[in-house]
Specification:
The complex is a heterodimer of chains A (about 400) and B (about 400). By secondary structure, chain A is an alpha/beta fold. Chain A has 16 helices and 11 strands. Chain A folds into 2 domains: about 15-215 and about 350-405, Crotonobetainyl-coa:carnitine coa-transferase, domain 1 (Rossmann fold, 3-Layer(aba) Sandwich), CATH 3.40.50.10540; about 245-330, formyl-coa transferase, domain 3 (2-Layer Sandwich). The radius of gyration of chain A is 26 Å and the shape is elongated. Chain B folds into 2 domains: about 10-205 and about 325-400, Crotonobetainyl-coa:carnitine coa-transferase, domain 1 (Rossmann fold, 3-Layer(aba) Sandwich); about 230-315, formyl-coa transferase, domain 3 (2-Layer Sandwich), CATH 3.30.1540.10. Chain B has 16 helices and 12 strands.
Amino acid sequence: MPDKESEAGFLPRYRVLDLADEKGSYCGKLLGDLGADVIKVEPPGGDKVRFRGPFHKNDVHHEKSLSFLYFNTSKGSITLNIEDSTGKAIFKRLVESADVVVESFHVGYLAGLGLGYPALRKINPRLVMTSITPFGQKGPQSGYKATDINIMALSGYMQLVGEPDQQPLVLGGEQSFYPGAQYAAVGTLAALFYREGGAGKGQQVDVSMQEAMITYWHEQTPVAMWNKTKENVARVGSMDAMVTPCGLYPCKDGWISLCVVTPLEWDTLAQWIYEVTRNEEVLQEQYKGGLISRMPVRDMVNVMVIDFTDRLTARELFLEGQKRKLVVMPVNDVPSVLNDAQLSSRNFWVELDHPAVGKLKYPKGPLYSEDIGVPRKAAPLLGEDNERIYCGELGYSSEDLAVLRTTGVI
Amino acid sequence: MAKKALEGIRVIEFGLYIALPLATRLLASMGAEVIKVETLTSLDMSWFGPIYAPGALQLEYRPLKRNVTLDVRQPKGKEVMEELIKKSDVYITNLGAGAFAKYGLEFDHIRSLKKDLIILWQTGLGSTGPYGGYKAYGRLMQHACGISTMSGTPDNLGVANISYSDYHTSVFNAMAIIGALERRRRTGKGCFIECPIYESGVVTVGPALLDHQSNGVVPERRENRHRYFSPHGAYPCKGVDRWCTIAVTSEDEWKAFCRVIGNPAWCKSAEFSTAAARVKNAKELDRLVGEWTSKRNAHQVMNRMQKAGVPSGIVSKGEDLARSEHLKSHNFYRETEYYSADFEKPGVKWPVAGRSPVFTEPINFSETPCMFGPMHKVGQDNNYVYGKLLGMSKEEIRKLTKEGVFA
């Protein structure tokens, strides 16, 4: 077993064998960034995420995929052909001393190789095996193939995005790759906590990306709505259908977002609108109230709000809004996020050096604590830990390693 | 009954909205004892929702939690809060620094109550920095963190009218707490962690952040089209607002896709012969695919594509989620009773309003399955928590209730 106490990380140096592709790679990153010893187990040609664009300087190269670089910080890498019989035997040896296996293969693939959870548990009863798949390990759709857009669709998320009379839209940035992997990190840690707390045994942690994504929009209570009203949640564009005002509004230099939740917030906003526009209508009694009380007069309210936001800049609205205890947020694009004064002042960015792409700044993650470190290293080069793991841990000689390489095992 | 993953862990929840109660719900489903501390003198706004079943939204946040009423603005209320914290492992809150100062519950003080306490403070934009402590809503944070400008059409930002970034925060909260519990067992030490909603959102645009640094790219809003794959989109099907998504990501899938739609002549045309050509001519390809799908039922399109190994999926509506045989096989939605609040006299009455379905956790554990249970009325657990846990006498509980401390 690896020495769990050798480094004073937030998490122990749990050995995590990470076989996941883009659907689950973020789970290993979260565990690795928190201190676990995560080893990416890649096919000899490399994890397929290495071939996903975009690439650094648009150079299509397996060390330069920006997706791979993002999802694999704080990890090591070994190559191993688990479909080969020697490779399988080596994988089983790695499992003997591992704490966790994370995978996102098509359901049944590992079982077909004799490397499913029942087989691995026999080798190491303490193993936690975490699977992140579009629809989970069981059920009539568990064998369905899905990419991001299909998961966003089947989870119902797309039903919410876009204009009412237009097509449903997917979010940018392949968002379904996050919730499932995040829940998987929670499940993995809970299973380890259970094991370490005296149970002594591992277990299988099976996460459905579809279900994870469903929980990410459930404040719209789609199923309860169908049960009670036989109606479906519909797309409403960029402004909320019930809470008013709430959503995106044009301003002098672009867009801002604002949302009024409490009766007091409305009174404050109405007064501010009046000060700027001198429109007395906005102060009328019929507009007062909380969360959904302006729903019947939604269109009129939005007209008055736009007339007001149009006259000010995003920055004016954000800063003056805060003075008045109102939430008006800027609508940032990617460059403005990278240059945001708030994030910089909180040391949100970590610069990591990578042999093939050099220095880039990465988010350190959303947790602040003097007990939590930052991502330790940039993504690994393909097979950079082969010698350390195969020779150092499993006892192969460099001669053995050459044979394994030549025969396509590693 | 099997042991639960977080059995024996007690969590005090002091906060509201979405991210915070969802995080503790997740912990409760794994066996932690979560005590939600709230006061009826200012009821959580989400009791209003949804409009067709006021109160049913609370089902998402409250299963398996203990609910107590406590007004910490009163000196005795603050004292009781301190006693509760001393008996707990985790304290999670999303109130602002100003409120803590007003109540005398600043973190330095909280920490002094219990040496190995795990404290999680969920904030909006973060507690420090030029915008430190600024008021924020998760609903709007998705716009600050960049997602909205990457989504939608060239003219219109793509927005879901939900608190998207809150959900990331809720799962990160739970992750941080379990990690801190593991660390406490190993080291005996407590921990203070802050989790801002803003940054929970920013981490989910990661590759785009690197792409801008490497290549100067500002992500385009490309509707449903993909930078590298085509066909890739939501295609209209028979019926009102019915759509099926299809994503062809390899040559094999392209061939299978062509087979499913009956190998029309255009499949062979030079315009669509390679992946690069298909991406270049995506608009025309989408039109042709849409012609085929619009004559068919969305479920049929999905099933035929899936049978041939082409990634596809209908755009689910509430009714599809309710009817899904797949979700039923996971027992994903479960029904339980909910209560509606009486806003005239909060807490006096909690009528059962009906039963409603609610999602369960998307994690399936083989040894310690997540639990699901009913929601409790606000204040339902006062006797258990104040009597059994804190050892107060019935008279004392009655007195403090009468004085409005337990209110």
